[in-house]
Amino acid sequence: MILYFHEIVWPYVCVFDIEHDSGKVFQFSGLMFKRVGDGLYQLCRNVNIYTQIEISKFISKFTGISQGFLNHYGQSLEEVIEIFNEFRDGIPLDDILFVSHGAHQDIKMLIDNEFPMDGAHYICTHGMAKQILNRAEHLTLGDIAEEGGYLFPAHNAYNDALATAFILSYLLKKKGENDDE
What is the pTM of this model? Predict the structure, then answer.
């Protein structure tokens, strides 16, 4: 997969999403894109990992992720962080731009859960959408993705990360169009 991220110049862009309950991350999904040309980024690796924690029935219903699934496929937080570090593959934190829809909260949540994210550079597609689309409402991930022509099942971190990658490209294209006017 190659996406166009207008005006982004970082060597790597990691589009990610998390799912959490009571301050504990139980799913991290990331898509690592490597810059291959002027604004062109190619997907070079991805990860979708779960921690083995207890989640509420509300969160299970909201995300579609069952307690049984986490009990069977979830791993310890230490193992998840090790997999996260393998996903980064030695890429220095300063060479990665992290992107999520709600990045400030997501980065804080990852740091609070001991992910090595201190000093990470990030942008938030929610904040971008507010500025670029010049509105204060209808800024959910689903709203923006649908406007850009991308439909997806929401509230699973992997699906949400894919949608976020799409809307990053969409928003940057819109920004370029707005700048040209």
Answer: 0.93
